[in-house]
Amino acid sequence: MSTTKDRLYLYDTTLRDGQQTQGVQFSTPEKHMIAEALDHLGVDYIEGGWPGANPTDSEFFAEPPKTRATFTAFGMTKRAGRSAENDEVLAGVLNAGTKAVCLVGKTHDFHVTTALGITLDQNIDNIAKSFAHVVKEGREALFDAEHFFDGYKANPDYALACLTAAYDNGARWIVLCDTNGGTLPGEVYQITLKVIESGIPGTHLGIHTHDDTGNAVANSLAAVNAGARQVQGTLNGLGERCGNANLTTLIPTFLLKEPYRSTLDTGVSEAALGDLVKVSRMLDDILNRVPLRSSPYVGASAFAHKAGLHASAILKDPTTYEHIPPEIVGNARIVPMSNQAGQSNLRSRLADMGLDVSTKADLGRILDRIKEREAEGYSYDTAQASFELEARRELGLMPAFFEVERYRATVERRKDAKGRVIHLSEVTVVVNIAGERHLSVSEGIMADGSDGGPVNALSKALVKDLGPYSDLISDMELVDFKVRITNGGTEARTRVIIDHEDTLGRRWSTVGVSSNIIDASFEALLDAVLWKLTRDGAQALGAE
Amino acid sequence: MSTTKDRLYLYDTTLRDGQQTQGVQFSTPEKHMIAEALDHLGVDYIEGGWPGANPTDSEFFAEPPKTRATFTAFGMTKRAGRSAENDEVLAGVLNAGTKAVCLVGKTHDFHVTTALGITLDQNIDNIAKSFAHVVKEGREALFDAEHFFDGYKANPDYALACLTAAYDNGARWIVLCDTNGGTLPGEVYQITLKVIESGIPGTHLGIHTHDDTGNAVANSLAAVNAGARQVQGTLNGLGERCGNANLTTLIPTFLLKEPYRSTLDTGVSEAALGDLVKVSRMLDDILNRVPLRSSPYVGASAFAHKAGLHASAILKDPTTYEHIPPEIVGNARIVPMSNQAGQSNLRSRLADMGLDVSTKADLGRILDRIKEREAEGYSYDTAQASFELEARRELGLMPAFFEVERYRATVERRKDAKGRVIHLSEVTVVVNIAGERHLSVSEGIMADGSDGGPVNALSKALVKDLGPYSDLISDMELVDFKVRITNGGTEARTRVIIDHEDTLGRRWSTVGVSSNIIDASFEALLDAVLWKLTRDGAQALGAE
């Protein structure tokens, strides 16, 4: 245990390299949200994009976020045939007025001659002059040494000369980039050592990796092991092709794992670490992405113990099958249902919902029922509310509140008198409560006047008139709606998972499965209502 | 370059540890498909599951796949207080009659006393007796040393003694398991060296890792670097919690990357490597999962070049931004549309579809149109056919084949005379072709007689009578249907992506976006028809 720790700097490029992810394009407000979250997390640098390269990046830099972290503009070294002062691309980057400027430049001889089509000396001159200029402008300068590892393997002397040209002209950080992502941890470690031997101290070296061989995290660790003290990465590992080094994985590793825990300091506090899952989910929300369940540390499955043997040991002592306590990163333990879960899982999950199931026979029956339903395409890993209702039904603890006799959904697209295309969705529902029939009809019209479609109309019609139950469910709000086709092609069955919230702040998920998407939605909506009535102890009036 | 290469053995546990993935449960036919694919790939061992642990595993072992690879049964070392001969769990595993048997056993003193609640000596005796028995039965024996790395850090002598008990009693392979996934590559490397120093040769050592710190692949490489010669993993990195080491990543790394390429031999041929993407996709199809675009080597984005600078360099020479040629693993290069893609991307993509767009103005207009649509929730990364139609519309090259005047979809759920719940979906479509109105109506009834829902009915009704076009589209088949909600909550917009195939073997994707899922589906279905008519040079008859 060293008493004085080295400082390890974290450099986030979610807003620049992260935006190179296929299908990702952040709006300016979204960039501000992300920058704020990164600042809250405690990274040292936030790279905002390339001012001048495209309108949205320029817009963001016109009103930069106010962050404790060093807000950084990205660009490239000056082109040959003009001075640094007269390169309008470089000028565009400097004009953003950020405290730090990160310039990418070539270090691989092949790229200099092939991609740029200039001489090796011209490239070195471009690097040297660019950094002299940036430093003269009073900015903290960083050099992203593009293709450095490939370049070093092809021509070590030239690759190192490029780094030296930036370092000798005042670059604060020399960042070794594995641009194509093909380098393996052993090579990164060895080559980083060579760079340090060449005279650039590790306290001025950064590492920038990509995940093309699944080693972006390991390559970052290898460089740090060799002495590098800045790590570049992105939230959730966003980035070009297979993505960049995942900071959501690296941050907990640096804070919790040896040798890093006792030898390195980052700007991330333990309190901020506790918000890691929240930050990761926020980014997925912005991207409208389903969070990756298997993500290290932050994934919904990261602490899910499916194997029966694991689950029973976990109940004795969580450390038996967990490498860290989930709550440290804001995650939670899951003991999911499944054919393999076994009764120890099931009992603990029923207990969580206040159902004390004593007899083995009851447990067995519920397990069989769940297996049956899962075979039909249902999934209860997330839809806990529907799972609870199934268990109650199997135990005969499910009250008969009402019966839906029938419903009909109509969706129309036609032209109106003025020849404009209009849509109309209408749903009628007939509910039988204690022998009394309640007819409801709703349109799928949304707040903005547009047609919300049949599911929207169905959801409204179902809760519109539930007689004596209406007050109990009046505060239900549909907050999320997920659809998955559980079989490709024509025989497809549709699984719908719907999330609701109420004013008590409760959020519950229900599932419906059918070859008919409307009917699958109906089933999930109905379960959502029944769950709330059950939880709130509504009186069962039945049907007739 | 060594002339004689070491043999590296690949051990697949997709069917056992892979099935521990949350939400994954393979049917017996699916297990046979997967085993066949693994055998085609050329892995050395296929672990089929735990015979006797659950009905589906037992069913699979009752009719095992005929594979060149060594089919292996998984189980655990005998319990204390009974002989190996009289342990019915162990008997269940041996009774499967497989050539190889892999038994998991404890090596971490804490687990022996806490989880098992027996003495350290009893555990060693259980290991020794179990392997003596398995070997006496004439099976190839493997020892999964559970929690070995944690065990070694806590009590190295005891952990090593457990390995020796298995090895001295004839275990062919001692597999070092990082069961909780918390060990980092540096530790794996050092500890594996220690094990070899202790007297177990690397040619008898295997590695089994989990991805809880994002290092499952790197930890596997670290053990191989230290001398281990068997690697355990799963297809697509399936597995408990964050998953196991991803063989789909490791296999190309061993075959294509130094030092492995020139020093190690695996059972995987270059021809089989070319089917890697196919095998990976097949597994996702079985799981009805959306393939992870960012997967190393096999992901759809693994060779997607979004940045404008990258894309233009790629056009000059692919090696500038690709660490391997995509086709080696059966993957393909993508130059996706996006705000950052720039015109070099766009032109090459239009050229791919036979649209030669010469003027910068045209390119600019198309780019603006695509940006506009993407802002509305459309996504053209996969829906190339809809992208092509948008470009044609913008260029005035889109023929007017017909107009859909209106459609109406009805979905009903009610009880029939016998009180059984029945569903009915019906769609009417009115199409105007050259002034002639074609009315079509279809029900959503599927091959099995059940109700396929409104999208199914809509798809049938739309193509039912397109007059003179009917022959041209008669071989269209809807093969996939994906739905995504692009905004959570009530203001949700629905994005539908539909894949079609025809008898020419063409597969094309179209996209529709609307707040109404039926209408979004309609839009995608319509584009699918229009794309085929366009590609097949149908004559435009227009509407009136």
UniProtKB/TrEMBL annotation, chains A, B:
Reaction it catalyzes: pyruvate + acetyl-CoA + H2O = (3R)-citramalate + CoA + H(+)
Keyword Amino-acid biosynthesis among record annotations: yes
Keywords: Amino-acid biosynthesis, Branched-chain amino acid biosynthesis, Isoleucine biosynthesis, Transferase
Single GO biological process annotation from the record: L-leucine biosynthetic process
GO MF entry, a single one: (R)-citramalate synthase activity
Residue ranges constituting the Pyruvate carboxyltransferase domain according to the UniProt record: 8-274
Coiled-coil annotated residue ranges, if any: none
Top-level taxon: Bacteria
The keyword DNA-binding belongs to this UniProt entry's keyword annotation: no
Family classification: Belongs to the alpha-IPM synthase/homocitrate synthase family.
Protein name: Citramalate synthase
